[in-house]
Specification:
134 residues, mainly alpha, 5 helices, elongated
Length: 134
């Protein structure tokens, strides 16, 4: 799972084990939380964003016990990766959404935040479902 948290965030191939899939879902969920924070920091200060520690705790609670230690060890590496990559990625996503919304920043903020929240919810459901089957 730790390998997946570190490596597979960058759209790697299909997961090869349950641990890999749990890692992919966990990393994706955390990324969506960090994306909301980055969007709020860069362009949309009025947006609510869940506390990052809350996001990490939500993921950890969903994971089967045998994977929690791997998750805790991988978390600092993920956060370091997000810190280095998300600013430019979110700036580009916001710019694209701003063009699509005709230059309306408020509309772009809302649409992008809604998209991220949908993704976060989907990932949480998949994580809950997969973890619950173990």
């Amino acid at each position: 799972m730790l390998t997946t948290l570190i490596v597979c965030l960058a759209n790697c191939g299909a997961p090869v084990s349950i641990a890999d899939e749990l890692g992919r879902l966990s990393a994706g969920y955390l990324q969506s939380c960090h994306e909301l924070h980055e969007l709020r920091r860069q362009r949309c200060p009025e947006l609510p964003a869940p506390p990052l520690m809350q996001c990490a705790n939500e993921v950890e609670r969903q994971l089967p016990l045998r994977y929690r230690a791997d998750f805790r060890r991988g978390l600092p590496l993920l956060e370091q990766r997000f810190a280095g990559e998300l600013a430019s990625a979110m700036a580009a996503r916001f710019a694209a959404e701003l063009r699509a919304s005709g230059g309306e920043a408020g509309t772009a903020c809302g649409a992008l935040a809604t998209d991220i929240e949908r993704q976060r919810s989907r990932l949480q459901q998949q994580l809950r479902s997969l973890a619950g089957s173990r």
